[in-house]
Design goal:
Keywords: Membrane, Transmembrane, Transmembrane helix. This is Arg-Lys translocation region protein phosphatase. InterPro entries: PPM-type-like_dom_sf, RK_trnsloc_Pase. The chain has about 375 residues and is α+β, with helices and mostly antiparallel strands. The protein has two domains: about 120 residues, no CATH class; about 220 residues, PPM-type phosphatase domain (Phosphatase 2c, domain 1, 4-Layer Sandwich). It contains eleven helices and ten strands. The strands form two sheets. Strands 1-10-9-6-7 form a five-stranded antiparallel sheet, covered by helices on one side. It starts with 5 loop residues before the first helix and ends with a strand.
């Protein structure tokens, strides 16, 4: 049997009731009128019936319109409540929009509340996740970042910082080799437990390399480069170098924006900037670039966190460092590093400065 929707049934019922009442009214009216008046009114019977029929249709149509409007609003509200737990937008998911009545307004208010609630929950979850990641990174950093420098003949070495509990701080270290020293500077523009984990892994590689005796610095650089390639993580800034104390040969692989700095004659000069800002995990045959470090000259590495905390302008950062150190007569590598650290702190504050790492090597005499 054909079933009508309740809203059609209600409209049809209103039309039937209205027209029935009109017919009853006409019949009662005819009964109480006199014979003369009854005859006169019967001339307009069809007009009266047509008017009653039209009025009943109008009343039924208005009933259908308002019931349909309320039904759509209630349907939207029902979808809204169903989407509340599923965190869906009912307008996008079901194509339902609220009407212009009170229920439609209520539906839109609920939709706005749902959106705000979802956004707040996502924001809170993101903040909580970032906070947890930062805590894990800081704990991991505090466990492995404890640098112990060894005395190396004819070299004066300094690393800043020697320890850190900040997961954003770059890792820097210098270890002795059979012919001098090998150094590393590694870090990421983003901080997290994955990045801190790779820095911890690199520190483990450096510790193992330190236990290897009789190995030249250049060979250690190649070995470390090959080991680091086995765990590709995007965004790694890395500089590896070795220095031979006998002849001052300094070779390096550089994948960072801040160039190598050489301090001599009371001035800082910069080497050619690397073409690659991030470490290339794909390339196996890397060419080591070389220069000669003379006695009483300082080889300086500054991490890429310096241009980042100085609004990502490497030229301004280098110019400030040059101006700060120009004309100063440093006695050892420690003075160089501490003075550059004070330069950073004066510009960005101690908390931001703690993200940067500085490494300095001086040839004490020609061996």
């Amino acid at each position: 049997m054909f079933q009508l929707h309740p809203k059609y049934k209600l409209a049809l019922a209103i039309f039937t009731a209205s027209f029935s009442f009109f017919l009853v009214f006409v019949l009662i009216d005819d009964l109480f009128l006199g014979d003369v008046n009854r005859i006169e009114f019967r001339k307009f019977l069809w007009i009266r019936l047509l008017a009653g029929f039209a009025f009943s249709i109008l009343l039924g149509g208005l009933t259908f319109y308002f019931v349909n409007l309320i039904y759509r609003s209630l349907k939207s509200l029902a979808h809204l409540f169903r989407a509340w737990s599923a965190e869906q937008d009912p307008e996008e998911e079901f194509g339902i929009t609220g009407g212009n009545d009170e229920i439609g307004e209520l539906s839109r208010s609920f939709r706005l509340a749902l959106f705000q609630r979802s956004e707040e929950e996502v924001s809170e979850q993101t903040e909580s996740k970032l906070h947890q990641e930062k805590e894990y990174a800081n704990k991991l950093q505090s466990l492995f970042f404890k640098i112990k420098l060894h005395k190396i003949r004819n070299l004066d070495i300094t690393v800043f910082p020697r320890s850190s509990e900040n997961g954003e701080t770059d890792y820097a270290n210098i270890i002795p080799t059979a012919d001098g020293c090998m150094g590393i500077l590694a870090g990421f523009p983003n901080s997290g437990y994955i990045e801190a984990g790779l820095k911890a892994r690199i520190e483990g590689m450096v510790s193992l390399a330190q236990e290897m005796t009789g190995v030249r610095g250049e060979d250690l650089v190649y070995k470390l480069d090959r080991s680091i390639r086995s765990t590709p993580i995007s965004g790694l800034n890395l500089t590896l170098f070795y220095l031979e104390t006998r002849n001052g040969e300094l070779g390096y692989l550089q994948y960072q924006e801040t160039p190598i700095l050489i301090y001599k004659n009371a001035r800082i000069s910069e080497q050619e900037v690397s073409k690659h800002r991030f470490y290339d995990f794909q390339s196996a045959g890397k060419e080591i670039r070389k220069l000669n470090l003379k006695p009483n000259e300082y080889f300086i590495l500054v991490s890429d966190r310096v241009p980042e905390i100085w609004n990502n302008n490497i030229a301004i950062s280098l110019q400030k460092i040059k101006t700060w150190s120009e004309g100063k007569d440093y006695k050892n590598s420690r003075e160089v590093v501490l003075d550059l650290a004070r330069c950073l702190e004066s510009e960005v504050g101690r908390s931001e400065m703690s993200k940067a790492a500085i490494l300095c090597v001086q040839r004490v005499r020609n061996s």
